[in-house]
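We emphasize that the prediction below concerns an isolated chain of 103 residues; any contacts that depend on oligomerization or on bound cofactors are therefore not represented. The input was used exactly as deposited, without trimming of termini.
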Amino acid sequence: MACFNWLGLNSVMHNCCVQNLEQFYGLRYCSTKYQNCWILIWLSVIWTIWLARNDLIFSSKIIHVSEMLNLVQLRSWRWLRARFPSFKYNFFSWSNYPGVCLS
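Result of the prediction step, given as a token string:
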């Protein structure tokens, strides 16, 4: 939910991974130029959760939601910049105004 709040969205998430992706992809409000950005953001969320799960299981390390959100922001920003050369926003803009960056 922290990621939805960061993106300025309110929603209830499905517990099925495929339906969750379809729901997340359906919430996009970016231009057609960045139509795959929602999938990329979703993947960064899932990857961050997966790595946090591994840290908990294998290293007994607990990662708090705020730290996970920071990791999602950083990961998605890096991936967007790598995937879309025209995505020129700095990290401050991305982490504070994602809606502007995606419009």
